[in-house]
Amino acid sequence: MAEIVNANRIRNTLIAFAAIALSIAIFFGFQTQTGSVSLESQAKESTPIEVAVANGKPTLTEFYADWCTSCQAMAPELAQLKQKYGDSVNFVMLNVDNNKWLPEILRYRVDGIPHFVFIDDLGKAIAQAIGEQPPSIMEANIEALIDHQPLPYAASTGQTSDLKDTNNPVSDPRSHSSQAKPG
Fold it and tell me: What does pTM read for this prediction?
């Protein structure tokens, strides 16, 4: 009987120590948590497109979606570029899942994301880049945009996410969801 009581005390002590250690780890984890850059927070802080086309500054417009892994991967790098060039360039973010932006999606022929449109200070689209882009390429394009120079990587294409057509789930007869009927 004494052995059972001692075993229970040891077990309870170990559980208590584990709980304390876990609580401390969670506490310090929240204290040292770095501020991650989310697409939602960047979109809220982006320049409204109406302001961007009227303020006489060049503009980098990003078409994105919250579910886009390439968009998410580029978010911290774009936040750094915005911090560096935000005084000289408008940074506009348009969520392709919002039907409000359908005219812009059609105008710039967005069919994969992220899709970047570089717009000069007169409001004219001068170049596009589609897909995940290295920060050095984005920075070189932004600097050229500011300097009124041709963009060195104007037609670059990286990894993209296809747009989801939520209104017509079978928009392509060759899609996996359609089956050929035996003749």
Answer: 0.66
What would the pLDDT profile of 77-110 be if each residue is shown by its tens digit? 999 999 999 999 999 999 999 999 999 999 999 9
Of 103, 124, 118, 121, whose CA–CA distance to 156 is shortest? 118
Q: Which residues are known catalytic residues? A: 68, 71
Closest C-alpha to 51, from 92, 96, 105: 92
Residue 9 structure tokens: 């005390």
The Cα 151–Cα 155 span in angstroms is 9
Q: Are 135 and 77 in contact (CB under 8 A)?
A: yes
pLDDT tens for 131-177 read 999 999 999 999 999 999 999 987 644 444 555 554 444 443 333 33
Checking phi first, is residue 102 left (phi over 0); if not, alpha (psi -120 to 50) or beta? alpha
Asked whether the beta carbons of 25 and 64 are under 8 A apart, the reply is no
* Whole-angstrom distance, CA of residue 12 vs CA of residue 142: 61
d(CA 146, CA 87): 11
CA distances from 42 to 31, 79, 84, 96, 103 (A): 23, 7, 14, 15, 22
